[in-house]
Design brief:
about 190 residues; alpha+beta; five-stranded antiparallel β-sheet; elongated
Amino acid sequence: MEYESPPPRRQHAETQEIERTGASISELSFATDPPASKVPQPAESEQVTTESAVESVAAAMAANQSQVTNPALDPARLLGDLKREMNRLQREIRLTIQAQLGQMAGRTLGTIEANRELVAAIHEMLDSHGLRVRCTQCGQPSILRVSPRTGASAGVFVFDHSVDGRRTFHGGRVVMPEIRLMAKPPRKPRKSK
């Protein structure tokens, strides 16, 4: 298969003139360029300074801001729409994670170390999305942990949280409990001693 060479490219007038005369670009003068003496220069009173241009733009923006005619461009409305969209996305994320974790209910990985790695990975993922596990006993936001227990070689799953300011562990099943998610509560400030 033979290819035809492309047709020669047309050169710009500057390149042709340089090749013909051997002059540099700065030495060339073309018919399209008016002589420097004929280029109109603004009078000093007509020259626009950067300051005055900025002031003009700011004044125009202020005038336009007071005349917002499109309600879709109202900042309060835009912020409200953004909040609703964020809430919808966060709910979707929460429900998706909850559905996936729900498939683990009633299972164990067989060793306390494996179960602890599992709940640590779950906690890390939930924490990155501002979520906590809902305690099945009291409904408080909690962290799922695995604690050693006599007679349970793989440990027991417990809900670690504070109730009335005291650290509490609810649960104690040898298999993963049913997981329901909720928003992580805000941190309480530490009391200074």
